[in-house]
């Protein structure tokens, strides 16, 4: 990026009283201009702490909604409203309600990768880093877990005394673009590298991993590890951040592991959003209020993760 463009962004941020938050899967040039980079929950929580009036959120729709739900008084701007998470779209309120009627004693645990409307009819939310802890902590013995089936299968490895009913959702990037054979090929090429994968990957991928982490978990782990080489089983742009923060270490992503929706946010769109302070994400106040409860419950139980 040119120095004068960087300077212009800094000046605009000041002039407009804006802060830029970017998910770990954003393009390198977006990560470089962001004030904070992290996973969706970290960013939503950061949003509660920043004093800026305007939040430019570089991520997919459910993340922007979560930031708004936790910060209803702030103006949250989504530079590309077509950046939608296909996993979050795999569960809708109507189908979920039918399912809940069939399982009246079950608690609905909703992965944060859901729409605000779905969160509003859920009992509690979870992230990939705290899902096991959250489900262990709730009293119900029957759980409807939405929408990621692979994450649900991973959670089931640790919880045997509850009936966890899974929803048939998947993340196309982690499920279909990170194959066991891709990881094994990377391992053949880099035998000393440790395999770390995200729990949204298929069970057969998780089976060959040395560690399973959320993206922020990966960031923490590799910086503390004595190992120098890692095969990273998640969206490949996380490696940009990992390399930047650990220049002495080597990271090998799966070349096909791309989330096309995350890439819809470009530098030009962010610049436009900064200049015009739009498009603003708005949610009905009753949805904000109802969706806030399961998120706050999660934050209370999951504190410390
Ligand atoms: S990587 Fe998967 S879960 Fe994350 S935003 Fe893309 S499609 Fe959704």
Question: What topology emerges from the helices and strands here?
Answer:
Layout: H1 3-16, E1 18-23, H2 28-33, E2 36-38, H3 40-49, E3 54-58, H4 61-70, E4 75-77, H5 93-102, E5 107-111, H6 116-120, E6 124-126, H7 131-137, E7 142-146, H8 149-156, E8 163-166, H9 172-176, H10 180-189, E9 194-197, H11 203-206, E10 211-212, H12 215-224, E11 229-233, H13 238-245, E12 250-253, H14 267-276, H15 285-302
Parallel strand pairs: 1-2, 1-3, 3-4, 5-6, 5-7, 7-8, 9-10, 9-11, 11-12
Count of DSSP helices? 15
Q: Give the topology string: H per helix, E per strand.
A: HEHEHEHEHEHEHEHEHHEHEHEHEHH
CATH superfamily of the largest domain: NadA-like
Oligomer: single chain
How widely separated are the two ends?
35 Å
Which CATH C-level class of the largest domain is it? Alpha Beta
Bound molecules: iron/sulfur cluster
What coarse outline follows from CA principal-axis ratios?
A: globular
What percent of residues are in strands?
A: 15-25%
CATH topology of the largest domain: Rossmann fold
Radius of gyration over alpha carbons?
A: 19 Å
- Give the rounded overall mean pLDDT: 95
Helix content: 40-55%
Counting helices, strands and paired strands, the structural category is: alpha/beta
Unreliable spans: none
Query: What is the strand arrangement across the widest sheet?
Result: 2-1-3-4
**CATH architecture annotation name of the largest domain:** 3-Layer(aba) Sandwich
- How many runs of DSSP E, i.e. beta strands? 12
């Amino acid at each position: 990026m040119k120095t004068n463009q960087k300077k212009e962004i800094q000046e605009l941020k000041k002039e407009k009283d804006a802060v830029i938050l970017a998910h770990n899967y954003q393009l390198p040039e977006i990560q470089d201009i962001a004030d904070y980079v992290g996973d969706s929950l970290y960013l939503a929580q950061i949003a509660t702490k920043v004093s800026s009036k305007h939040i430019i959120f570089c991520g997919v729709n459910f993340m922007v909604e979560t930031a708004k739900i936790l910060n209803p008084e702030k103006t949250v701007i989504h530079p590309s409203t077509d950046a939608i998470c296909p996993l979050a779209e795999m569960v809708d309120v109507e189908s979920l309600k039918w399912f809940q009627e069939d399982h009246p004693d079950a608690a609905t645990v909703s992965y944060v990768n859901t729409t605000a409307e779905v969160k509003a009819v859920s009992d509690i939310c979870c992230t990939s880093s705290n899902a096991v802890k959250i489900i262990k902590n709730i009293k119900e013995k029957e759980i409807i877990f939405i929408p990621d089936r692979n994450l649900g299968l991973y959670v089931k490895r640790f919880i045997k005394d509850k009936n966890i009913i899974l929803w048939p959702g998947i993340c196309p990037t982690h499920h279909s673009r990170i194959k066991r054979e891709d990881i094994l090929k990377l391992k053949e090429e880099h035998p000393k590298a440790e395999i770390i994968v995200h729990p949204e990957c298929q069970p057969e991928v998780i089976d060959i991993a040395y560690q399973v982490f959320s993206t922020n978990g990966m960031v923490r782990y590799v910086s503390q590890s004595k190992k120098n080489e890692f095969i990273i089983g998640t969206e490949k742009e996380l490696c940009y951040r990992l390399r930047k923060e650990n220049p002495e270490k080597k990271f090998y992503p799966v070349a096909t592991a791309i989330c096309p929706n995350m890439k819809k946010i470009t530098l030009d769109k962010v610049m436009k959003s900064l200049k015009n302070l739009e498009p603003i994400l708005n949610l009905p106040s009753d949805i904000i209020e109802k969706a806030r409860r399961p998120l706050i419950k999660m934050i209370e139980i999951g504190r410390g993760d």
